[in-house]
Structures are given as structure tokens and as C-alpha cells.
From TrEMBL:
Organism listed in the record: Rehmannia glutinosa
Primary location: nucleus
Record-given protein name: non-specific serine/threonine protein kinase
Domain FAT: 473-1028
One Pfam family from the record: FAT
Length: 1028
């Protein structure tokens, strides 16, 4: 309790500190320090271990003594422990505490960035639980609905922290499922949840007396509804004892019974609260707050307008629903009508209850009004001309409104399923035994009304509401918000209801309209499902041009897409859409100079769409480093004009990046900071809406925050200089540390082309400006690898040419892999073979060269390998090339077993601590073992089956003249074991196979005959010696 009081006191002091930072008051600093020192330093003996539970205090010189006491109480804390505390602080009920914790987290991530990245490297999955909680808490911070300046700064600093953490791959972040929203509960349960989880928090965290009084009034009225009296609390009882003794009166027997019943209900509710909550709400037992009655001034028809803020819309809708609430819960809703104006968490919590009350117990007009309100939000989102669709200034607020509707519909659907399940479970009990029937009703009293027929009617009303909302509208609204999985869920339901199942063999399989198939293909395109696109295209009688475009875009066949666009332009020569798609093709094919040329031509021929052309041209200009063109295109992109919507997905963010780079060139530090802040501000609202759904949906916005953070890092390195005149060197300590940090952050991102391309493009710009050709080449190699993995082979080939021009090492490996991926195995092997022949013979080894060229090369005994760092790196490059060459000639069967083993052996010699060399050597020897075992066992079985018994002995003797399969076993087990000893990347392949072979041989050994066991004994002894 002491720690909670201390936290509560510090929260108000932190509010004063935040005001101090605003510059509102500078004369109270000494008083603030004095209060904190008295609270923490002078009372440290009394508080003892509770000090460690205090919220974060700013790390400033004036509070050094306070921080020292808190640090001593907490002791030595690892970074992981600090992150645990940060998560708790970010979930604190007080806004000022959350802001201070977020500020300290930002400082922590800046000061300990190397340690932070090392935490992922060393612990990996062990730290992901903390990171998942941290990311979730930061998403909540971005969704902060407070209208105060502290609330706005909290959103910005949470976005900054997400960028500092980096765009961690969604596959690594564990999904944090939200607690199931149980609508169906009794009135007392609802009152308890409201007070315990929401109103007590709002009361403590209130930034001003108006909000605090609103929360206190709601608590006061709810306690009255539940029958809680002042006599329930001992402290209040003492204060009111004298007044109660002076009251004299008589009551009827019926009145006494009602009083007793209410007192018992109130006692049960009061006993459910913790002592901490009781201490907060006890004054409300005797308070006399009043909220004036407000007339229902709500206008008829839907409230929502696309230009409305989320806070304003939700408040007016709840106000309207509260005015029309009926039944026992209307008093509960009326008690909260003051606090919902100020606290969006409570508003969102009450919304499903209010809607359910209106649908189940309200009039037909109330139900149709709810349907109209929901449809007004969804129709605005589904409309092509809505602000949401065109990403207007208020699009982020609109997305939050749409997400609130989706959550409401999910909760109502869950309620229907729960009710149907409860009724279904109660049916067998009702039919089997009358006593059990009464018992079953008692068991479900807390979740179902007494009359099951009434429940069925209510369930029908809710189901009708859900059915009245067209699935097609839901699907289109979801698609506009980039919630592709939800869109697919709704649209598949819509298509099945209208046209039947997708399976032609099903009972009902109709003919699908082209419009429906086109929309489904767009959804699958958003989900990155190229196989689904091909399957859907087959449902058409003839493939359309748009289908061909979508399929080829997802497959990365940009040359095919470009051909289709050219064909479309012949039919529609003045189509802006097709010309924008042509520019997009050039961008994705990495033909950036072609984009610039094309944009210049379009600006002169179709000047009315100059804004569109320049917006796309900016993407190519800053990647090329054509700063004059970038300035020109930025001017055109900022002009008033028509903007083609297809070019907007990432082009607007690229325009922000270009403006930041422009400010860096001009050495305008204020402008750099301003433009980065504005770019983050534009991302916060859609990020908050997407974060309400899932991390995967919010991931594109996190990637953009990741890039903005690296732009800030680069600006810090420039130290006020223009990057055009500042040449960095790899031996500069600060620059080197920054590059290492960027590389670590890149490894944590999703290994997809769309996520990593902007990051690599920016780094290429940095290296090109500093003349670091080798580093620039590495970026192109990484880009080529991503393109190859995504199947974008033409772009990968272009990236390889750029890497070769930049002088990157190991270009031959990536080129060979590209040839292998495009099924040109002979060309891939020839590329590696030529590269090996150009390498030093003394390093590759004469035996390896001999195996490659099939003739002997001198010297026979190569000199010992050098051990310096540069030589080791060269050896690793050669080992990678040799290993890849060996694997491919093994797969294609171009060399004999002895040649293959010689090449694998040379790989081991070049890199004796490399896990990969031992693993692939083990796999090859394993295949030899399996082949020998199968051949020998088949031969023995066949000879026993077809030959007389006296000839079978001769046949088995012939088989035994060949090397027995188990003699290969020691080498296989040894290589697997050595690979596992040197790394764990192949753990799930190597360890199971190693154990399988070991156990299999052991069982054969102990079941074999005496003669066979004698042959196996040496192998058995040798195998056992490995593990002694």
C-alpha cells in the first residue's frame, strides 16, 4: 500500500515536471525536487523495498540523489529487467508516468543500442516475450486519445521508440491475444468490472479535477445502484456513526426486507474489491456529486461524418445510445455518461453493452438506427471517393473508427455464439430430467436471462443486426484499411452465399461473376498469395488483362507486366492509370534512369497530371542521387493538381524521405527535425488503427519508422554538415558502430523484398556519397538475394550487374544462385568453376583443382593457410564457393564419389570451424550409407528368395566382398556431431538424423547373429568412443 501511495504521489510530481518541460513554470523546480527528496530519500527506511516499485524518475542532475536511492533499492538490473519495468510503466494508469517512462525508454535505447542488439543475438526467443509486451504497450501509447499536450508527445515518443527498436519480423514477435470480451454478465459483474478495471484507474490518473469528479460521480452512482452503503467501510463508518445515531424512524417489514436484500447485495460487491480499490472508492460512499439531466438533443439519422474525429463520433454515439437505454442497465449507463466524454477506454468498453441493450431490449427504430450508424462508417470506407480511400488528412482517424466498428461486430458475433452454445448445452439436461432442468437454469443465471424464449428472441435480434450489414460492404471497407485477411473472410462468405462454393465438385457450385473474382484477386494480392491468384484466375472463362497483371506482379515478372501495360496503352492511349503502372514497372525493375526519362516526357505531354508524375519521379531521383531532379520533382509533387491513387501506396512516404534528404543537403537542422517529426506524425494514426488488429497489419508502418530512425542516425553523424561534402571512412569509430547497428537491425526485419528494399536503398545512397564501393556492392548483393528469393529474377539480374560495377566480392556466387534458380544448372556450375579456377591454387588446393579440371596440378602439397583476418575472410569466400560447387555437382551427378569427397574435405580444411562444411559432408556420406545399405539388403533378400539354400551362401559371400554399409556410419556420425559442435543452424536436421542412425545401428547390432556382430564390433566400439 505504501508503494502505491508513493507511486500516486510521484505521478502528480511528474505532472509538474512535464509542465516544467513545457516552459509553463520555471519557479517551482526547487519545490519539486524538495518534495521528491522528502518522499523518497528521507522516507527510504520506512518504504524499504517498495521504492523499487516507484515509476521512472527523469535522469536529471537535480534528481541525482532521488535516482541514487531508487537505484540502490532496485540493485543491479540487466537490460531485460529494465525492459520488464518499462512495460509495467507504459501500462501505468497515469498519463504523465507513461510519458516519463517512454522518455526514459527512448534514452535507454539510444545509450544501450549495442547491448540491446546483443540481447537478441544471445537470447533470441527468450527475450521475445518481453519485446512482444513492449511493442504492444507502445502501440497502445500511439493510440492515446488524450487531448493534452502530454498525450500528443506520448504518441510521438512511442512512435520514436518503435523506430529505435526496429521493424522486428512479425514471425519472431509472438502474437499477444487480447482477453476475450465477455459481454453476457450480470449487472453486478458489469458494475464490478467498471469500477475495478476502469473507473478506479480513471480516478487516479485524472489530469484535472473535472475528469476526476466525473469518475467519482460514476463510482458513486454505481455503488448506490448495487446497494453499497457507507457502513460497509470502517473509516466512513466512524465519520457517519454520530449522524446515524441521531436518526430515528420506523420502517415497514417490507421496507426492512428490501433494505436487507440491498445491503446483502452491496456487501457481496464490496467484498469483491481489493483493499487498494476500496481505499480509492470509499469516499464515494458518502459523496454528493450530481450530474444535471440532459435532454435528448441527438439528431435523427447517422451521427458519423468522414471528417469527424474518433473521439467526437464515439462520444455522440454513446450519448445517443445512453438516452435510449432501457431496463436495469440504463441506470448503469447513465451513471457513466459524464466520464465517457473524457475517457475513450471506458467509452470503448461500454459501447458493446450499449449496442446490445438497444438491440435486445430496444425498439425497432433503435435497432435500425444502430444499423444505419454502422453502415455510415463502412460505406464511407468502402467508397472510392471517401477520405479513407484517398488517404486524406483525416484518414487515420477514419481508420480508427472503422476498426472500432470491426471490434464491435466481433464482440456481438461472439455474444451470439456464446448464447447459442449455452442454450445447446442446456437442451439435453432439460429433456432428460426435470430436476436437472431447474439446476441447469440456475447454473446459467449469471449469463442468460430467466426466460429462454426471451434469450432466443434477443439472439435473433442481434443475428438480424449482423445479417443486415452487407458482407460486400464489410469486405470493401476492410480492403480499404489494408485488413486483407478480414476482407477475405467477409468476401468469401458473400461469394458463397451468392454463387456457391469454390469447389466445382461441391453440391452447389455456381458461375462466379468477373467483378467478384477481380476483387478476390486484389485481396489475395494484398495477402501475397501468388498461388491463390492463379487458382482464382482459372474460375474465369477467359483470363483478363488485369488478372494477367496481378499474377505477374506477384510473381515478379515485371517484364511481362510492362508488356501488358504497353498493350493496354494501345487500347487506352490517354489512360493515366496505365502510364502510372508503367512507371511502377520501371521502378520495380530497378531501371531508375528510365523512370526519370519517362517522367520528364510525361510532364511535357500530360502536364495536368504533373503532381502524379513528379511524386513517382521522386522515388527514382533520390535513389539515383540525382539531387537536381529531386528538387525539381519535389516542387512538382507539392503543387496543386490531380494525384493518381495507384501511385500513393509508398510514394508519399518516399516524398517525405526526399524532403528530409533535401534538408540535410541544405544543412538545415531545424528543417530536418521538423520534417522527420511530421512524417512520424502522419504515420501514428494509421499505425494505431492497424495496431488494434495485429502487429502484422501494422508492420508496414513500423518499417517506415525504422527507416526514419536511420535517417536520424545519419543526420547525427553529419553533425550539421551536408552529406554531399562529407566523406565517411570505415575506420571512423562512430560511423563503424552505426553501420554495425544498422546491419544488426536489418537482420531482425522480415526477409522480404518490400520490407528491406527502402532500407537498402538508403544505405546505398550513404555509401555512394562516401565513395565506399565495396559496401555499396554488398547492398546490391543483398538486394539481388531478396529479389531472387521473391522470384523477381529480372530485377535480381539488374542488381547483380550493379554489384559487379561497384566491385563487390562474391558476385559470382549470387549470379550462380540466380542461374540455378532459373533452372540453368550447367551455367551455374560453369560460373562457379570459372571463379574457382581464377582463385589462388595454393588456397583452393591442388586436389580440389584436379577434381574440377580432371587433371593434376602442381604443387601437390599446398602451403599452410595463413591465419590473419584478411586471409580468413578470403578463405571463407573460397570455401563458400567450393561448397556450393560441390553440392551442385553432387546433385547433378557430374563427378565420382572420390572427387566429391575430396572437394568436401578441402572445404573443411579451409574453414575448420564452419558448421556448414561438416553438415553437408555428413549429408553426402549419409546418402552414400543409405544407398549402400539399400543395395546390399535388396541383394541379400533377392538371393535368398530365388536361389537354393546352398547357393545363397555363395551369393551372400559375394555381397560381403563389398564394403558393408555400417562401415560408413562412424564418419557420418562424426561429421554430424562436429557440425553441431560448431553451430546450431542445422540443429533440427542434424540432431534427429544423428540419433536415428545411432539408435538404428544399436538395435541392429544387438539383434544380429554372432558372425554379423563380430563384423560390426569394431564399428560399434568406434561409434561409442565418440561419445565417451
Amino acid at each position: 500500500m505504501a508503494s502505491r501511495r508513493g507511486s500516486f504521489g510521484i505521478a502528480f510530481v511528474l505532472k509538474a515536471i512535464s509542465n516544467e518541460r513545457d516552459g509553463n513554470s520555471s519557479s517551482h523546480k526547487s519545490k519539486i525536487v524538495e518534495i521528491l527528496e522528502e518522499l523518497v530519500v528521507q522516507n527510504k527506511v520506512i518504504l524499504k523495498q517498495h521504492i523499487r516499485e516507484f515509476p521512472t524518475v527523469p535522469n536529471v542532475l537535480a534528481l541525482a540523489e532521488v535516482n541514487k536511492v531508487i537505484q540502490e533499492a532496485r540493485g543491479l538490473m540487466t537490460l531485460k529487467d529494465q525492459l520488464h519495468d518499462v512495460v509495467e510503466g507504459l501500462n501505468h494508469e497515469n498519463l504523465n508516468v507513461r510519458y516519463m517512462v517512454a522518455s526514459e525508454l527512448s534514452k535507454l535505447l539510444n545509450l544501450k543500442r549495442e547491448e540491446f542488439m546483443a540481447l537478441f543475438t544471445k537470447e533470441g526467443d527468450l527475450v521475445m516475450d518481453v519485446m512482444s509486451s513492449l511493442i504492444t504497450s507502445l502501440f497502445k501509447g500511439c493510440a492515446e486519445e488524450s487531448r493534452t499536450s502530454v498525450g500528443q508527445r506520448l504518441k510521438l515518443i512511442c512512435a520514436d521508440c518503435l523506430g529505435a527498436i526496429g521493424a522486428i519480423d512479425p514471425a519472431k514477435v509472438k502474437v499477444i491475444s487480447s482477453t476475450r470480451f465477455k459481454i453476457a454478465c450480470s449487472d453486478d459483474d458489469l458494475i464490478f468490472e467498471l469500477i475495478h478495471k476502469h473507473l478506479a484507474r480513471a480516478f487516479r490518473a485524472a489530469p484535472d479535477t473535472i475528469i476526476q469528479d466525473s469518475a467519482a460521480l460514476a463510482i458513486q452512482e454505481l455503488l448506490k445502484i448495487a446497494g453499497c452503503e457507507a457502513s460497509l467501510d470502517e473509516n466512513v463508518l466512524e465519520q457517519t456513526k454520530n449522524k446515524q445515531q441521531m436518526k430515528v424512524g420506523k420502517s415497514s417489514t417490507r421496507g426492512m426486507d428490501e433494505c436487507t436484500e440491498m445491503s446483502g447485495r452491496g456487501q457481496r460487491l464490496w467484498d469483491r474489491f481489493s483493499n487498494y480499490i476500496k481505499e480509492i472508492i470509499a469516499p464515494c460512499l458518502t459523496s454528493r456529486f450530481q450530474l444535471p439531466n440532459m435532454s435528448d438533443s441527438a439528431a435523427c439519422g447517422p451521427i458519423y461524418r468522414p471528417t469527424m474525429s474518433f473521439r467526437r463520433w464515439i462520444y455522440f454515439w454513446i450519448k445517443k445510445l445512453t438516452a435510449h437505454a432501457t431496463g436495469s442497465r440504463s441506470a448503469i449507463f447513465n451513471a457513466c455518461r459524464g466520464i465517457v466524454r473524457h475517457d475513450m477506454h471506458i467509452a470503448m468498453y461500454l459501447l458493446p453493452y450499449l449496442v446490445l441493450n438497444a438491440v435486445c431490449d430496444g425498439t425497432e427504430d433503435a435497432r435500425s438506427g444502430i444499423t444505419e450508424e454502422i453502415l455510415s462508417v463502412l460505406d464511407a470506407a468502402a467508397s472510392d471517393s471517401s477520405p479513407t480511400a484517398v488517404h486524406g488528412n483525416n484518414s487515420g482517424q477514419s481508420e480508427v473508427c472503422i476498426q472500432a466498428v470491426f471490434t464491435l461486430l466481433d464482440n456481438l458475433g461472439q455474444w451470439v455464439d456464446d448464447v447459442k452454445q449455452e442454450l445447446a448445452l442446456s437442451q439435453p439436461l432439460q429433456s432428460s430430467n426435470p430436476r436437472q432442468q431447474v439446476k441447469s437454469k440456475d447454473q446459467i443465471m449469471t449469463t442468460l436471462p430467466k426466460d429462454s424464449n426471451q434469450v432466443l428472441v434477443q439472439c435473433t435480434h442481434v443475428a438480424e443486426l449482423l445479417g443486415a450489414i452487407p458482407k460486400i460492404t464489410l469486405a470493401k471497407a476492410s480492403f480499404r484499411c489494408h485488413a486483407y485477411a478480414r476482407s477475405l473472410l467477409y468476401f468469401e462468405s458473400y461469394v458463397r452465399d451468392k454463387s456457391g462454393a469454390f469447389n466445382p465438385a461441391s453440391e452447389r457450385s455456381g458461375v462466379f461473376e468477373d467483378e467478384d473474382i477481380s476483387f478476390l484477386m486484389e485481396v489475395y494480392s494484398g495477402l501475397d498469395e501468388p498461388d491463390g491468384l492463379s487458382g482464382l484466375a482459372s474460375l474465369r472463362k477467359s483470363e483478363s488483362l488485369q488478372d494477367h497483371l496481378l499474377i505477374n506482379k506477384k510473381a515478379g515478372n515485371w517484364a511481362e507486366v510492362l508488356t501488358s501495360c504497353e498493350q493496354a496503352l494501345q487500347m487506352e492511349p490517354f489512360s493515366v492509370q496505365w502510364r502510372s503502372d508503367v512507371l511502377n514497372c520501371w521502378l520495380n525493375m530497378c531501371h531508375l534512369q528510365a523512370v526519370v526519362t519517362h517522367v520528364d516526357g510525361l510532364n511535357s505531354r500530360i502536364p495536368q497530371y504533373r503532381k502524379t508524375w513528379c511524386t513517382q519521379g521522386v522515388q527514382a531521383a533520390w535513389r539515383l542521387g540525382r539531387w537536381d531532379l529531386m528538387d525539381e520533382y519535389l516542387t512538382g509533387a507539392d503543387e496543386e493538381g490531380i494525384l493518381c491513387s495507384s501511385s500513393e501506396s509508398n510514394a508519399l512516404f518516399d516524398k517525405d524521405v526526399a524532403k528530409i534528404l533535401q534538408a540535410m543537403m541544405k544543412k538545415d537542422q531545424f528543417s530536418v527535425a521538423e520534417k522527420i517529426a511530421l512524417s512520424k506524425q502522419a504515420l501514428i494514426a494509421p499505425l494505431a488503427a492497424a495496431g488494434m488488429d495485429s502487429y502484422a497489419r501494422a508492420y508496414p508502418f513500423v518499417v517506415k519508422l525504422h527507416l526514419l530512425r536511420e535517417l536520424e542516425d545519419f543526420n547525427s553523424l553529419l553533425n550539421g554538415e551536408s552529406f554531399l561534402g562529407r566523406k565517411f571512412q570505415l575506420d571512423e569509430p562512430e560511423f563503424s558502430r552505426t553501420l554495425e547497428n544498422w546491419e544488426s537491425r536489418l537482420k531482425l526485419t522480415q526477409p522480404s523484398l518490400w520490407a528491406r528494399e527502402p532500407l537498402l536503398a538508403f544505405r546505398s545512397l550513404v555509401f555512394r556519397a562516401s565513395g565506399l564501393g565495396a559496401e555499396l556492392g554488398k547492398c546490391w548483393i543483398q538486394y539481388a538475394k531478396l529479389c531472387r528469393s521473391a522470384g523477381h529474377y529480372e530485377t535480381a539480374n539488374r542488381a547483380i550487374l550493379e554489384a559487379k560495377a561497384a566491385g563487390a566480392s562474391n558476385v559470382h556466387i549470387e549470379k550462380a544462385k540466380l542461374l540455378w534458380s532459373t533452372r540453368r544448372a550447367d551455367g551455374a556450375i560453369a560460373e562457379l568453376q570459372q571463379s574457382l579456377l581464377n582463385m589462388p591454387i595454393e588456397v583452393v588446393g591442388s586436389a580440389a583443382i584436379s577434381s574440377i579440371t580432371s587433371f593434376s596440378v602442381v604443387p601437390v602439397n599446398p602451403p599452410p593457410l595463413l591465419s590473419d583476418t584478411q586471409s580468413m575472410n578470403e578463405n571463407l569466400d573460397i570455401a563458400k564457393t567450393l561448397l556450393l560447387y560441390t553440392r551442385w555437382i553432387h546433385y547433378t551427378g557430374q563427378k565420382q564419389k572420390e572427387d566429391v569427397i575430396n572437394l568436401y574435405s578441402r572445404v573443411k580444411e579451409l574453414q575448420p570451424k564452419w558448421e556448414k562444411g561438416f553438415f553437408y559432408m555428413a549429408k553426402y556420406c549419409d546418402e552414400v550409407l543409405v544407398d549402400a545399405r539399400k543395395r546390399q539388403e535388396d541383394s541379400t533378400e533377392q538371393s535368398v528368395r530365388v536361389m537354393p539354400s546352398n547357393l545363397a551362401v555363395v551369393a551372400s559371400t559375394n555381397v560381403s566382398s563389398e564394403r558393408r554399409w555400417w562401415t560408413y556410419l562412424p564418419d557420418v556420425l562424426l561429421f554430424y556431431a562436429k557440425g553441431l559442435h560448431r553451430g546450431h543452424k542445422n540443429l533440427f536436421q542434424a540432431l534427429p538424423r544423428l540419433l536415428t542412425l545411432w539408435f538404428d545401428f544399436g538395435s541392429i547390432y544387438y539383434r544380429s547373429s554372432a558372425q554379423s556382430r563380430k563384423d560390426m564390433k569394431n564399428v560399434h566400439v568406434k561409434v561409442c568412443s565418440f561419445y565417451d
